[in-house]
TrEMBL record:
Superkingdom field: Bacteria
Alphabetic keyword roster: Signal
Keyword Signal carried by entry: yes
Identification of the protein by name: Copper amine oxidase
Signal peptide coordinates: 1-22
Keyword Signal: yes
Length: 185
């Protein structure tokens, strides 16, 4: 009788182990590259369906645990870079005084703040300007930073990012980017 219980237990455990192994065999971790940048978390292909982290698609993501719904919103953001009254995209290495003008539309939710930051080719981020949004936000607005000076120390691609903070206690989420290419003089 004892021997039968042991055999049933061994059979049950080996069946469960086989299920776990077959589940692992049907999923595959994949690299996720968005606009030439590899995403840290990557994605998975499970039974022929690809699953990727939605936060990496530059939008506002909220999860309502009571309904089990994930909401993704990606407002339309245009970023313009001004040196004085001149729009630019490429620069020579060195210091440059400029400002960032952003036009935002198709926003369907209230937000708490916006931020502009610049990321150098090595991945170092410097905040340029943050602005709290007071009161109910319209579906479209403009945001322009003050003039600031930035040192483009190395040649390469710098990314100027527009971020939105949905609530006062949430973090900033990247919504849009503009690339500045710094060239050797």
């Amino acid at each position: 009788m004892k021997w039968t219980k042991v055999m049933v237990l061994v059979l049950a455990l080996s069946t469960m182990g086989g299920s776990v192994l077959s589940a692992e065999a049907s999923s595959q971790e994949v690299k996720l590259i968005i606009n030439g940048q590899e995403v840290k978390e990557g994605g998975y292909v499970i039974d022929g369906t690809t699953y990727v982290p939605i936060r990496d698609f530059n939008g506002l993501v909220t999860y309502d645990s009571s309904t089990g719904k994930v909401q993704f919103e990606q407002p339309n953001v245009h970023i313009f870079l001004f040196k004085g009254d001149t729009v630019f995209g490429n620069v020579n290495k060195g210091k440059l005084k400029f400002n960032v003008f952003s036009q935002i539309d198709s926003l369907t939710t209230d937000i708490a703040a916006v931020k502009i930051a610049i990321t150098d080719p090595a991945g170092n981020v410097k905040d340029i300007q943050t602005q709290e949004i007071i009161g109910k936000q319209k579906d479209n607005f403009w945001f322009r930073t003050h003039d600031f000076t930035y040192d483009f120390k190395t040649a390469g691609k710098y990314r100027v990012g527009f971020y939105i903070k949905e609530t006062s206690d949430s973090g900033f989420m990247l919504i849009s980017e503009k690339v500045i290419t710094a060239l050797d003089s």
